[in-house]
Every structure is written in structure tokens, then in C-alpha cells.
Design brief:
With 714 residues, this protein is α/β, with parallel strands linked by helices. It has 3 domains: 201 residues, Glycerol-3-phosphate (1)-acyltransferase, CATH 3.40.1130.10; 330 residues, Rossmann fold (3-Layer(aba) Sandwich), CATH 3.40.50; 92 residues, 2-Layer Sandwich (GMP Synthetase, Chain A, domain 3). Helices cover 34% and strands 22% of the residues. The chain has 24 helices and 33 strands. The strands form 8 sheets. The chain has a 9-stranded mixed sheet with strand order 9-8-17-16-18-19-20-21-22. A 5-stranded mixed sheet has the order 1-7-6-2-5. Helix 6 packs across helix 7, helix 7 packs across helix 16 and helix 20 runs parallel beside helix 21. The longest helix has 24 residues. The N and C termini lie far apart (95 Å).
Length: 714
């Protein structure tokens, strides 16, 4: 009777939904049930709602908590103490004899929302007994007063709780491992299982506008979510109203084609236009305004874009008239947002505001998220840009992968100044809106002084940027207080220099978190994070990804990286086959990167396959040489290339912005830093302005064009 009464009230308060009953039934015997632990009330909910009575392991200290006291009479509980090995004996015998038990791998509720430290003792129980692991993900109790999560908003008693039972799996460890190494390996395997369970439960199956409506419902329509530079913040309701208004006028514009070019900066207008185009059932193709007119037109041809949405004010301020001329000469239609503004009457504004209040998200439609959501273009740093078609599922999966790794707080304030035509810039668009995290938009990452001021004035806590920009912001800051509120810096897009890490740590006491991503993976592939960090690497692969490394002739360490997973793109759009998505063969994407992976799973980027040169029978990484050059002279730009001429037909050469650099100084400096003689450039070319992409990376295509007529013998 007591059991039924507790179940009734829990259902009344939390409207509990359970998914995956079939996985419970198929798990078999000898099963360690491993739930995530987000609140003190989780054991009580599981004890009441699991289909059979199973023993629970309770960490000794938690038995003194008052919420746990409510749970103890309703379940068979046994003390589990990592410091007392004898407390493990009961569970070892139970699992060996084919029984089932519930053990929370974290032993205590999380304070950050993500899985915390996984107990090696729990992992060793599973390994020693060969028990199957049945992961369970609990979602919703983190919003209740029973949670220990810090920096949370929207605390409520009436929160919907979802319990997802995932398929049973096993811990797989090489037989030759023993002792502490086996314990560490078991802990990593169990942590991986919990991460993948968290990922599976967090991926949503709706288009972005429906996800936005769900976020509004969860966090409140009056919550301030976005802000343009120099403007007042807008709420969820204000954001949705603006999307409806822009959608209406764009529909009246009768834009031709399914793919609509978007030529706008990182701004509220750019983000609203993206959402409005997607809500219309069309696909925004994000055009790179840092390209020349010819390249921009090629991108439009590749994606079969017939209409481009842009702003007169943006074109004038950016002095981008040449791009519009090229687009119009190609016969494409240009839709100016300013020309549509008169159509937005006062009546339409009131009507949209009223409609916003009553809008609800659509139910899940199977296959809806497999459709293309957005088209991005590769950077073109090594060749002609290709279109990359990403689905809603690709992006939702990668957001969940990031959320599983990175500790986002509801109190965070993100500054997004990376261009939204770049996958890195998109990290500051859809994901924070979904999570209810405030975002401040600024149109350019190049205004170093202004950005350091914004970080202080707006109390920014979270920043995405490349090494080039992070180095610039640190040097431009007039006072250490400019970044006093910064708690998380995520760096990607290029190699993190030691000098950049050092200046941020010394001046602002912030450690930069380095990651690795590619547009084709939506974009995050690997990252360092609080629980697992190793300097000199880009961290471990995110949950849910498969990888393989193929050997490369002449490369003795690592190999060519291939990736597969639900975040990998739908496919490429190529200029040779415009408008047609070419999916990766068998789902595997060739990154073209040469990497190595150590026994703990940390990934080290050794260079691009295209940026290796065979010299004297050895494969030399040009990127590795550039990395050492940046360490020696971090203030300058350096590019190592092969230039025609010399006894072997090509000569290893350095293009640098460092004035008066002589070959003897170069040779001595690189030798002192451990560089082999064979890898030291033989020719030095001074270039005051080394060509760069909008992300701050070196533009090798433009550089090769400049150097194509140079001969080292001349």
C-alpha cells in the first residue's frame, strides 16, 4: 500500500514517463543497472517505478540525507563504500549468481548536470563478475529542489521526468591488462557507457523551431535569451515573434529554389533569418562574405542557390558591394531585408505577438530530422569550397555530444562573434537557445579591444574562438578584470599555441580548453574537458563516434583519420554535380588529417595529409614545422610550403611576416627547439601580410596563387 501511495504522488508531481521497457526484459541475468544520478530523489523514483524489486547500493554518507531516508523503507538497500572492500562482497556474489542490482556509478548526485567521477570500484565489480551493464538515464529531476546542481534556474516541483532504459552492454577490456591499469581501463569503459547513455537520451527529434518552442515552454517566454551589440536583450517570446514576422515577409517575396543563400553577419537579424527560412521549409545556405565574388558565386552554383537574402546596411558597412555585383551578374536574385520592413505593419506585429503566446511545438514526426537543415561551405584553405549538407539530426546529435562533455550552466553568458557561416560560429546559435543560455552577438572577431570590453561589460562567462583571436583578445585587454567573469574558453579551428595558453593562464587564471572539429562532423569531433584534459592533445573523441586510423606511407606515427557517426554530414555538394548531395561511402568520412591516439584515448593532430612533404625519403609535417615556428616567434605569421626549384625540383620554404629573419638564425633557433635539420626550411620569403581566412587560419590557396610564379633558383 505504501508503495502505491508513493507512486501515485510521484506521478502526480513529476508525470513520469518510462521509455525502453523492452531493453529491461532483454537484459538477461547478471545485470548491473547503472543510472545517472542527478538528484536525491532518483533512488526513490527508481525503487517505485522499476518493474521488479532489486537491491540498491547506497553510498554510506548519503544514508544521512533526509530525502534518502524516505527511500530506504521502500527498497532493499546495501551500503557501498569505496574505502571498505568488504561492502562489495554482497554485490559480487549477487551478480555472479545471475542476480540484478542497482548501483549509481557516480555514487552521489551530480553538481554540474553531466556525469561526474565514475567509481572504478563499480566498474571493477562489473568486470570481475562479467556482468552486463544496463544504463538508465533520468532526465527532469535536475530541475527540482532535490537536485545539487549549481547555477540552475527554473527550479520547480512539477517537472516532467523521463526515465530512458538503454540496451544492455558489456565492459570490454584487453585480457592482458591487470592491476591499476585494468582498474583505470574499466573506469574509462564504464564512463563511456554512461556518456553514450546520456547522449542517446538527450538527442531530440524535432526541427529547430519546434525545439525553440519547447525551450520557451521550459524556461519561460519572458526569459531574456539573445542580444545584439548595442541593443536591448530580447526574450524567447520576442525572438519567436520576430521569426514569424520575417517568415511572413519572406514568403511574400516568393523566393525561388529550396536552398536560400544567407549573406548576413553574426547578429540577431542573421539568426532570425536562419530560423525563418527553416520554418518555411527551405534550407539556408550560409555564404562566406570573406570570399571574393568569384568564389561566392561558385558556392551559389554548387548549392543551386537562386536567391540571396542580405542587408544593405551590412553590405555598406562591410564594403562588400563587389560581392553583390558578382551575385547579380550571375543572374541571382537579391532580397534586401530593409526593403521588406515596410510590409511589417503594426497590425502584423500585434497579430504575431498574440500568435506567439499560443504556439506549441509539433509532435515528433519520424524521419523529420533526417532532412537537410543547413548548408555550410568548407573553408577552402586547401582547395575550392564544397557545400556540406547537415541534417537536424546531425546538429542535434553534436549538441548533445557537447552537452555531455562541457559543463554548461544556466547562468552562463556566451559571447558569439565567430561568423555564422562557419560551423564554429553555429555552436553559439542553436545549442544555447535550446539550453536556455543567454547569447550576446557581435558581428566581427577582429575587433580585439571592443571584444575585451564587451566581455567585461556584459559579464561574459563562455567564449568560442580560434587561437589567433584568443591571443589577440588577451593582448588587447587593458586590464586583467576585462575577463574576470570568464570561466570557459573553447578553442578550435587551429592549433593552440603554448604562448596563448600561457598568457590566458598568467593574466586571467583561465585554462583554455582545446578541441578538434570539422564542418562535416557538425562540427565537434574531440575535446578536452574538466574530467579528462591533456595538454598538447585535442582531447578524447565525443560519445557516439566511431573512428579508424589508416596507415600512410612514410608516416611512422599515427595515420589518416576516418570518422563515422550520427553527427557526420548527409554529404557533399560539389561544383561538378550542383545541388546533389553525395553521401559519404558506407557512412565513413575521410578527414584528411593525420592523427595519433594514445592508450587513454587522447587525440593528437599531427597535420593534414595534404600538408606532408616527402624529403630525403622522410614524410615531413609542414604543420609541425609551423607549430615550432609559432613557438619561437608567436607574434608573427608563418607558413611552410614547397616552392618549385632547387636540386630536387621543390624546396622546403618559409613564408613569414617576421622582418630581417636570416637562414642562420632560423636554423639555430629551430635546432635549439629540437627540429631535425631535414625539416628546417631552406628558403625564407618575407611577406608582410600573409593571407588569412575569416577564422584566422592561413589561406593556403591564396598563398599558393601568390607563390606560383616564384622559383627559388631565380
Amino acid at each position: 500500500m505504501r508503495h502505491m501511495i508513493v507512486k501515485f504522488f510521484l506521478n502526480l508531481f513529476f508525470s513520469i514517463e518510462i521509455k525502453g521497457w523492452e531493453n529491461w526484459e532483454e537484459a538477461g541475468e547478471g545485470v548491473l543497472i547503472a543510472p545517472n544520478y542527478v538528484s536525491f530523489i532518483d533512488p526513490l523514483i527508481l525503487a517505485v517505478f522499476l518493474p521488479e524489486k532489486v537491491p540498491f547500493a547506497i553510498e554510506r554518507r548519503l544514508t544521512k540525507k533526509r530525502f534518502i531516508g524516505l527511500f530506504l523503507p521502500l527498497a532493499e538497500t546495501h551500503i557501498l563504500d569505496a574505502d571498505a572492500p568488504l561492502t562489495l562482497k554482497y554485490f559480487l556474489n549477487l551478480l555472479k549468481n545471475g542476480g540484478r542490482c542497482v548501483i549509481f556509478p557516480e555514487l552521489q548526485p551530480t553538481t554540474i548536470g553531466n556525469p561526474m567521477k565514475v567509481s572504478q570500484g563499480v566498474a571493477m565489480i562489473a568486470d570481475h563478475t562479467k556482468a552486463r551493464i544496463l544504463p538508465i538515464n533520468i532526465k527532469g529531476t535536475e530541475l527540482t529542489p532535490f537536485s545539487r546542481i549549481q547555477h540552475k534556474r527554473g527550479v520547480r516541483f512539477f517537472s516532467k521526468v523521463t526515465i530512458t532504459i538503454l540496451p544492455a552492454t558489456e565492459i570490454k577490456i584487453p585480457d592482458d591488462l591487470s592491476g591499476p591499469k585494468r582498474g583505470s581501463a574499466a573506469g574509462r569503459e564504464l564512463e563511456k557507457i554512461m556518456d553514450e547513455a546520456s547522449l542517446a537520451a538527450r538527442v531530440v527529434d524535432k526541427p529547430f523551431f519546434d525545439v525553440l518552442l519547447d525551450a520557451r515552454k521550459q524556461y519561460g517566454g519572458k526569459f531574456r535569451i539573445l542580444c545584439d551589440h548595442g541593443q536591448r536583450p530580447i526574450t524567447y517570446n520576442g525572438f519567436i515573434t520576430r521569426i514569424l514576422l520575417i517568415e511572413d515577409v519572406l514568403k511574400n517575396a516568393e523566393m525561388e529554389g529550396d536552398n536560400i543563400g544567407v549573406l548576413l553577419p553574426t547578429s540577431l537579424g542573421g539568426v532570425i533569418s536562419m530560423y525563418a527560412i527553416e520554418k518555411m521549409g527551405k534550407i539556408p545556405a550560409m555564404l562566406n562574405f570573406s570570399l571574393g565574388g568569384r568564389s561566392l558565386v561558385n558556392c551559389c552554383r554548387t548549392a543551386s542557390v537562386k536567391t540571396v537574402v542580405t542587408s544593405r546596411k551590412f553590405i555598406e558597412l562591410g564594403k562588400l558591394e563587389a560581392l553583390i555585383t558578382a551575385v547579380e551578374e550571375e543572374g541571382l536574385r537579391v532580397v534586401w531585408l530593409e526593403d521588406l520592413a515596410p510590409e511589417i505593419t503594426k497590425f502584423k506585429k500585434i497579430s504575431a505577438a498574440i500568435k506567439t503566446i499560443f504556439l506549441k511545438s509539433n509532435p515528433v514526426i519520424e524521419g523529420e530530422t533526417d532532412k537537410p537543415a543547413i548548408i555550410l561551405f568548407t573553408s577552402g584553405s586547401e582547395g575550392a569550397p564544397k557545400g556540406v549538407a547537415l541534417s537536424y539530426k546531425n546538429l542535434h546529435t553534436n549538441h548533445a555530444q557537447m552537452y555531455t562533455r562541457v559543463d554548461f550552466y544556466r547562468s552562463d553568458r556566451i559571447l558569439n562573434m565567430m561568423p555564422i557561416f562557419h560551423s564554429f560560429g553555429l555552436c553559439g546559435v542553436f545549442m544555447p537557445i535550446t539550453l536556455g543560455i543567454f547569447v550576446y552577438y557581435y558581428p566581427s572577431p577582429l575587433h580585439y579591444k571592443t571584444i575585451s570590453t564587451i566581455c567585461y561589460d556584459e559579464r561574459i562567462t563562455f567564449l568560442f574562438a580560434t587561437d589567433t583571436f584568443l591571443g589577440g583578445y588577451a593582448k588587447a585587454a587593458s586590464d586583467n578584470y576585462d575577463f574576470a567573469t570568464m570561466r570557459m574558453l573553447v578553442q578550435g579551428g587551429e592549433k593552440l599555441k603554448h604562448s596563448t595558453q600561457e598568457i590566458w593562464f598568467e593574466r586571467f587564471s583561465v585554462r583554455i580548453t582545446e578541441g578538434y572539429g570539422v564542418t562535416e562532423a557538425s562540427p565537434v569531433v574531440a575535446n578536452n574537458y574538466y574530467a579528462h584534459h591533456k595538454s598538447g592533445t585535442v582531447g578524447q573523441f565525443v560519445a557516439g563516434m566511431e573512428y579508424r586510423i589508416e596507415p600512410v606511407e612514410g608516416v611512422h606515427e599515427g595515420g589518416r583519420l576516418w570518422l563515422k557517426g550520427p553527427n557526420i554530414m548527409l554529404g557533399y555538394l560539389r561544383s561538378t554535380n550542383p545541388g546533389v548531395i553525395e553521401p559519404p561511402k558506407d557512412g565513413w568520412y575521410d578527414t584528411g588529417d593525420i592523427v595519433s591516439v594514445d592508450e587513454e584515448g587522447f587525440v593528437r593532430i599531427l597535420g593534414r595529409a595534404k600538408r606532408f612533404a616527402k624529403i630525403g625519403g622522410e614524410m615531413i609535417s609542414l604543420a609541425a614545422v609551423e607549430e615550432v615556428l609559432s613557438e619561437a616567434w608567436p607574434e608573427e605569421k608563418h607558413a611552410v610550403v614547397m616552392i618549385k626549384g632547387g636540386p630536387r625540383g621543390e624546396t622546403l620554404s618559409l613564408v613569414t611576416s617576421r622582418p630581417d629573419l636570416k637562414r642562420d638564425e632560423l636554423r639555430q633557433t629551430l635546432s635549439d627547439l629540437g627540429m631535425a635539420e631535414i625539416a628546417i626550411p631552406k628558403k625564407i620569403l618575407l611577406m608582410e601580410n600573409v593571407p588569412l581566412l575569416s577564422t584566422g587560419k592561413i589561406d593556403y590557396v591564396s598563398l599558393e596563387e601568390i607563390l606560383k610564379d616564384i622559383d627559388v633558383d631565380s
